[in-house]
Amino acid sequence: MTRAQTRQHAKRNQAPGIVGWRFIFVMLALAMVFVVLVARAAYLQVLEPEMLVTQGDLRSLRVTSNTVLRGMITDRHGEELAVSVPVQAVWADPKVVLERGSQQDERRWQALAEGLNMSTEQLNQRIGTDERRRFVYLQRQVSPAAVDYVRRLNVPGIYFRQESRRFYPAGEITAHLIGFTDIDDVGVEGIERRYNTLLTGTAGRTLVRRDAKGRDIEVLEREDAQPPRNLQLSIDQRIQSIAYRELKQAVLTYGATSGSVVIVDVDTGEVLAMANSPSFNPNNRRNTPVHHFRNRAVTDMFEPGSTIKPLPILAALEFGSADLSTVIDTRPGMLRVGGSWVRDVSTRHGELDLTGIMARSSNIGVTKLALSMPHQHLLDLYFSMGLGSDTGLNLSGESSGMLSHRNRWSEHELASLSFGYNLSVTAVQLARVYAAIGNGGILRPLTILKSEQGLPGERVLSPEYAKAMLAMMEAVIEPGGTATRGRVDGYRVGGKTGTTRKAVAGGYGDDYVASFAGVAPISNPRFATVVVLNEPASDYYHGGEIAAPVFANIMSAVLRLKNIAPDAERVRISQRQGGRDAS
């Protein structure tokens, strides 16, 4: 037998067990894999199909939106006070930046940092080292020139996003009233905050499905954008500019720490101007102290002093304890009330009628009138004139003032109340009081929105006494009155001065608040104006010396601006000279 035949015979006799078991094992393994795959597929398709749908949607669904700019704020004539301008934000995808090695191109990376006004170290810190991050802002509200520069660099992983930036054309003139927004265009102060919801629209939204190449293949949902509303204020930008200019000059001239001016249309309750000084630039608030942002005309309270004296006189007339012919003896210039003294500045007033009490600002005169009636009647008139309550403006931070509701008042407390102590008001509250006197005795809520008719009012004074008070206020401006510097050439105006010490712990300090509240023109009242100067540092600190001239300058410009005919040559409402000196 040859060797080849022997080898073939051995192969035929060899047991095939090992080869067979290998084949069986492989087949069983394949079968198990197949069963597992089928089971997994059945589980995903039948028991948990939502997960597959979700994963598919994450890879194919995209939401696109369009930017909606914030609504404009304009004055009553359509002049823009706040507008939104489109700008760009620069952002980065850290994963792309790190994977593409954008930081390795040192020359381009340095140029990018300089274009964004930061160092390369700051830029690297913004990007970080975490490749899982996909979005980080590098700079927001970037100028068009800077965006164009960065775009030309073409740095991988650096992208742009459209947003808007708020711009205030009037700057510091309307800063406290309009307020401002934050970097996300959300109102944080003033009108911007109060009407944030109205001014903010809703961006449009479109849900689309895209293929692997990023092409839109199906629109699933579409929501139209809800445009924002524009806001038209009652403010007259021309009057606002005049008021701010004169107030700022007075604050600087007399070294006051601050000041406020409010001008109200007496017929509608519309606020035509509301200015504060010192102000700030709302377009660049960097390094501005936070306390400069508050609108002092609505937030800051002060004791009104003699500017409140029309109210006790009107209360006595309404109650009947005095009439238009009443004469009060103010001699000898001081009066002991409830264990304390009430004094007049001058001891030579003698007998004064009601006009004389107003013109010479007699504390004794109003004290006797206040004590001639039940205290509740006096308080009721104060409350009915809007003291101790908000004005209807509903501006952020508005104060309601302070006027106690208690039932027991000592005689000296009532006396103090009659000449403007033991209560606090804001500039807008005082303007509302004088607007009610100017329109014949109807108290209306104030409004900062344009309203030709105004909101419904409530009669709080009889027309006869409101008209008589206008004549008394005019006497304050005439020779012999306390506010001769408040006169306006060619026009009849009236008002009342106020000078009060500022309260400190345990009493009153050496700082003053000088104020003037007035109405113009007297023959047909149109405007109620309040001027407040806080803590003047000069030798002049009386309301008649420093606040009345501001009123005169403002009203002189406003009356001519509104083309109101001069009325100084017409017959006076009253010819009374204001008093009778003692013989």
From TrEMBL:
This is Peptidoglycan D,D-transpeptidase FtsI. It comes from Alkalimonas delamerensis. InterPro entries: Beta-lactam/transpept, Beta-lactam/transpept-like, FtsI_transpept, PBP_dimer, PBP_dimer_sf, PCN-bd_Tpept. The chain crosses the membrane at residues 21-43. Its EC number is 3.4.16.4. Coiled coil: none annotated. Residues 259-555 form the Penicillin-binding protein transpeptidase domain. It is an enzyme of class 3 (hydrolase). Pathway: Cell wall biogenesis; peptidoglycan biosynthesis. It catalyses: Preferential cleavage: (Ac)2-L-Lys-D-Ala-|-D-Ala. Also transpeptidation of peptidyl-alanyl moieties that are N-acyl substituents of D-alanine.
